[in-house]
Each structure stands twice: as C-alpha cells, then as structure tokens.
Amino acid sequence: MTQQSQGNGSHNDDIIIMENVKKRFGDFWALKGITTRVKRQEVVVIIGPSGSGKSTLIRCINHLEKHDEGRIIVDGIELSHDVRNIEAIRREVGMVFQQFNLFPHMTVLDNITLAPRIVRKWPREKAEKLAMELLERVGIADQAHKYPGQLSGGQQQRVAIARALAMQPKIMLFDEPTSALDPEMIKEVLDVMRELARSGMTMVVVTHEMGFAREVADRIIFMDAGQIVEEGTPEHFFTNPRHERTKLFLSQIL
Ligand code: ADP
Ligand code: MG
Predict the structure, then answer these.
(1) What is the pLDDT of residues 161-203, one digit of tens each?
(2) Minimum-distance ligand to the CA of 46?
(3) What number does the ligand 1 atom closest to the CA of 52 have?
(4) Ligand 2: distance of its center to the CA of 245 in Å?
(5) Contact criterion met (CB below 8 Å) for 85 and 237
(6) In a mutational test of the pocket of ligand 1, which residue from 25, 59, 222 has the highest number of ligand atoms less than 8 Å from its CB?
(7) What is the DSSP annotation of 173-187?
(8) Which of 16, 134, 169, 243 is the most buried if burial means most Cβ atoms within 10 Å?
(9) What gap in Å lies between CA 38 and CA 15, rounded to an integer?
C-alpha cells in the first residue's frame, strides 16, 4: 500500500523517516528500534563499533534488508513489502559499497550506462553522454573504456559512485566506501563525496573517517548494539558527547 506524505505525520522536508525500525536475523535483533529522520540535502554520518547495525540500518533504507517492525518512509513512499514500492524507492536511492561491486566483464562506461538503459530505457547515446559527464565529475573520464580490473581501488570506487549517480537518485547511501582502499586513495574518494555533499545531495554515510565526518556531516549518529545511542552535530559529538559509550568509542578511535 502506498502511503503519501500527507496524513502520516511526515513533513515534506523529511526525505527519510524511520519510526521504531526493528530487524532481526533469527533470534538476534540487529536493529532494536531505530527512530530518526533525514532532511532533504542533509548529510548524516553513522558511526559505531563493528556489529552495531550500521550496515543493516542503511540496507533497510533501500530494502536490501527487510525490516521486521516499524515504518520506513522514503520521499513519501512507505517501504512495505509491495514490490512496486520497493522498485520506486530503489530508483531514488543510490548505494555505494565497501567492495565497489562493479561488473568485471564490462567497461567502465558500460557499468555506468547499464541501469539507465535498462531501467530508464534511455537510448545508448543519452546514457553515454550522462556517463561521460559523471566520469568528468569524479575525475576519471580518461578511464571510460577500461575494465574495472585495470583501475586502482580509488578509481573503481569513483566509478561506483558515478554508476549510482547515473540513476539520478535523490539520496545516496554509502557503506564504508573507503574501508577497502589503500590510504593514498582514500582522499580522492572522500573529495568526490565532499563535492557531492556541497552540490546538495542527501547523503547517509557509514564511515570511520572522522575528519570527513567532522567536516562534512550535518549530523552524526552514533550506534551501538542495534540502537542509536546519541546523535547531534559534529561540534556536539566530538567536543561534548554525553554518553559513556560514545566517549569510550571516541577514545578508542581518535
Ligand atoms: P555493522 O555494519 O555496524 O558492522 P551490521 O549491520 O553488519 O553491523 O551487523 C549487525 C549485526 O547483525 C551483527 O551482529 C551481524 O553479525 C548481524 N548480521 C548482519 N547481517 C546478518 C545476516 N545476514 N545474518 C545473520 N546475522 C547478520
Ligand atoms: Mg557494516
């Protein structure tokens, strides 16, 4: 059943609404009741220890994981088990993973044009024109005709970002996009993400890059054991965390 944004307590400003979202794997509750909202053009960074539910949370937003309880509303569409809603939301939400997940047997250009051509039914020329613009934007237009295996990790991740952007999403989700990269390649990916944030993209980013979080995030969410322990501005978060668990986590990583 499609829910419009009227009458369910949402504001048009909130592009993602999560209300008491729970997710379990067997007997184990990976999300124990997540309530939060993301505003249009907001950049939210999620941090927390390994196993705290960060990936599960963002995977629920585009239904790569199915939540068991609570509500998720993305741009006015409630994420129910109706396949049409799921398709509608996936068209609006781009995702970038730790392990790039490019198609190895396809060129960079074909990786990027595939979804627009198949899902949006764009002609090849139109899809390729946008793909080349996006490759310019992420700084690797000269790699368009190579295969992923011929690129560095940082270049592959920038292709993955361009590929997600090719669907012209309203929201971009990032799950530890720099965690698989050698240190010298992290910056080139973070620079692309920084530019994307500046352009007004709504972003939810799981990362351990605290410099990026401090500089780019509008809000930081700290999770532990399937719950949001604390959320606030980077300023609040890094200088004046309230909860002991947050302080402990920060003392271990900073
Ligand atoms: P994070 O991204 O914060 O490291 P995850 O969201 O990946 O944490 O995982 C949260 C918890 O849920 C972990 O304990 C993990 O082992 C468990 N989990 C995640 N995915 C699955 C799955 N497909 N099956 C069983 N348990 C899972
Ligand atoms: Mg994870």
Answers:
(1) 999 999 999 999 999 999 999 999 999 999 999 999 999 999 9
(2) 1
(3) 3
(4) 19
(5) no
(6) 25
(7) EEESTTTTS-HHHHH
(8) 16
(9) 6
- Work out how many domains the chain is built from and give that number: 1
Q: Is residue 138 part of a domain?
A: no
Q: Which residues of 53-79 are buried (b: 16+ CB within 10 A; e: fewer)?
A: bbbbbbbbbbbbbebeebbbbbbbbbb
Distance 98 CA to ligand 1 centre (A): 15
CA of 26, closest atom in ligand 1: 25
Summarize the confidence of residues 27-32 as an average pLDDT: 98
> Does 120 map to a domain?
no
CATH number at residue 83: 3.40.50.300
Report the atom number in ligand 1 closest to the C-alpha of 206: 2
- Domain assignment of residue 193, yes or no: yes
Torsion, CA 241, CA 242, CA 247, CA 250, rounded to 10: -30
Rounded to two decimals, the pTM is 0.94
For residue 103 and ligand 1, the question of a CB distance below 6 A is answered with no
Q: What domain range includes position 183?
A: 15-99+169-252
ipTM associated with this complex: 0.98
Chain segment 60-113, per-residue pLDDT in tens: 999 999 999 999 999 999 998 788 888 888 889 999 999 999 999 999 999 999
pLDDT at position 237 over 70: yes
Instruction: Tell whether the model's pLDDT for residue 4 goes beyond 60.
Output: no
Q: How far apart are CA 26 and CA 50, in angstroms?
A: 19
